[in-house]
Amino acid sequence: MTNADPGSQAVPYALTIAASDSGGGAGIQADLKTMTRLGVYGGSVVVATTAQNTTGVRSTHLLPTEEVRAQYEAVVDDVAVGAIKTGMLATAAGVRTVRDCLRSFDGPVVVDPVMVATSGDRLLEADAVSAYRDLFAEATLVTPNADETAELVGERPDSVAARDRAADRFFDWGADAVLFKGGHVDDGSGTVTDVLAVDDGDPESFAAERIDTDATHGSGCTLSSAIAAELARGASLSAAVARGIEFVRAGLRTSALVGERGSVNHLAWRPEDE
Question: What angle (nearest 5°) sits at the alpha carbon of residue 272, between those of residues 269 and 273?
């Protein structure tokens, strides 16, 4: 079917550049399910495959960087991509390759600096941390959790002052905005607070009751891909973040009973939630 065929439909399109999760809870599988659920046509650039389930990562196989670049070029040469998100990039060479690709992209980019899986398995080589800082120059939004923030800037964003200092570092690296995820920051209040910091703007907080579940596998991937999907649909950054947070919360409230530990349930979102 071509665009001129009767019955064809224009659809928003988002692209994920990340690794495959064979168990389906995180990575590219989570990204594509999220995008589809939010009414966005998803494409993918596979950086690596992982032998993975809800309990951990057993092995990783990296694709050659020239194949990563070839996938990206094949998509953007043919498709009007509305937004891009990046996930697990694994190595410094992988991060640099993606950075080079994104330099010619003029749409919104969500960078999820994936370093460690929920299971605790390391997903990023140590020498790739500095390469990530260069990638942030292409980012509309960076979505680090507290541990990733600490590794990148040397300080956990556990206070307003620490978060402000961390935000300034991300802005110095070229990011337009940072979403400091609050899931790994527990102050005992029973509340999770995510904070959106925007360069030259006031921070915006999104606070909600902490959901008591261990089935958080894929939550970070799901959040960043949901935000990218909303940006591809034309939402503002603030609205995209709010919708992304609610999408993840729906998947945590009714987590998927898959595997030993469970996972975010990408089927939990309903049209009436929109």
Answer: 50
- Best CA proximity match to 198, nearest among 228, 161, 241, 159: 241
Give me the residues paired with residue 194 across strands.
206
The CB density around residue 33, as the number of other CB atoms within 10 Å, is 23
Q: 207-227: per-residue pLDDT in tens?
A: 999 999 988 899 999 999 999
The more confident residue out of 16 and 54 is 16
Residue 21 · residue 218 · CB < 8 Å = yes
266/251 Cα distance (integer angstroms): 6
Lowest mean pLDDT among 14-18, 187-191, 208-212, 256-260: 187-191
Tell me what pLDDT residue 2 has: 53
Q: Which amino acid is at 55?
A: T
Q: How many CB atoms lie within 10 A of CB 272?
A: 5
For residue 1, what pLDDT band results from cuts at 50, 70 and 90? very low
Rounded CA-CA distance 240/256 in Å is 24
By residue count, the chain amounts to 274
Distance CA 196, CA 26 (A): 23
Beta bridge partners of 153: none
pTM for this model (two decimals): 0.94
What is the helix (H) or strand (E) element at residue 197, kind and residue range? strand 191-198
pLDDT higher for 155 or 123?
155
What does the alpha-carbon distance between residue 196 and residue 109 come to, in Å, rounded to a whole number?
15
Please tell me the distance from the alpha carbon of residue 78 to that of residue 248, in angstroms, as a whole number: 31
